[in-house]
Amino acid sequence: MPLTAPSASSGSVLSLIAADMDQVDAVIARRLQSAVPLVGEVSRYIISAGGKRLRPALLLMVCGSLGYKGDQRFNLAAVVEFIHTATLLHDDVVDESTLRRGRATANESFGNPASVLVGDFLYSRAFQMMLDAGDMRIMEILADATNVIAEGEVLQLMNMHDASLDEEAYLLVIRSKTAKLFEASARLGAVLAGADSRVEQACATFGQALGTAFQVIDDMLDYDGDASEMGKNLGDDLREGKATLPLIAAMQRGSSEQRELIRHAIETGGLTDLDNIVAIVRATGALEATRQAAAAEAQRAMDAARCLPVNAYSAGLLDLAGQLLQRRN
After folding, report:
1. Which pLDDT tens digit goes with each residue over 3-26?
2. Which tens digit of pLDDT belongs to each residue from 151-207?
3. Domains and CATH numbers, the chain
4. CB neighbour class for 235 (10 Å; exposed up to 12, middle 13-18, buried from 19)
5. Which of 139, 190, 268, 284 is deepest in the core (most CB within 10 A)?
6. Separation between Cα atoms, residue 204 and residue 224, nearest integer Å
């Protein structure tokens, strides 16, 4: 079945789990407590910045679709948010980012050492919380996911300023670095619900495809977004020397002169030609090609979700996949 327009807004979809998210927030607040004041201060700073909370939301919605109502869903939703937050703290240091979600990054406000060390605290606190589930399968999923994410971060670092990167190599990075935690979140919901292996794998596929589509759209918005809506600096990816899909597609479609301009910008991390590069990305159809790649991933997610029981939560998961294509921030 082809991808269809979403039937509800993201707000109405996530309203299904609003009460659950309140419980998750309570767990987060309780488990952020530390005898070291700076740990709590930095942790609360980045978590209070908001964000879409898609990973815990995904876990909760899969649980809802499969009928699981146990309290472990709140604990594990907080775990995946802690892991995600730890990666943000570390990424912003590596990328030398100054703006996230419309305000200064933690490293900009507290310095690199504090950001790295508090990220370590969040990782270790997440592993402490995993023990509460008392399930080796859950431990295995989260330990494997954390390891793959770390590999993806190193792979991305190795690919910096490499203008020869192709779409396959690009997708390998984002499926490791970004999509893996989406995949783990959805898989955890199925495991908590006691689903069979077929449903568990379908949930994992949904999460991976959703996470991939999310990152592809995020990379597209770096050349087609509004900084005030996105809450980050436009052109950050180019400044960091990242050959993301819009640039890869533009180089495939552009003239030799256009390819050379983009190649030089990736290799030097320069923003001098940003306006020209944005114009090239738009003129060559690279944005549409990128959107089509995201649509294919969203369709893959929706196809996987169709094995779930038909209810408001599974309908919400389908809507969530379709809504990614309307993202503006």
Report:
1. 333 344 455 778 899 999 999 999
2. 999 999 999 999 999 999 999 999 999 999 999 999 999 999 999 999 999 999 999
3. 10-326 (1.10.600.10)
4. middle
5. 190
6. 30
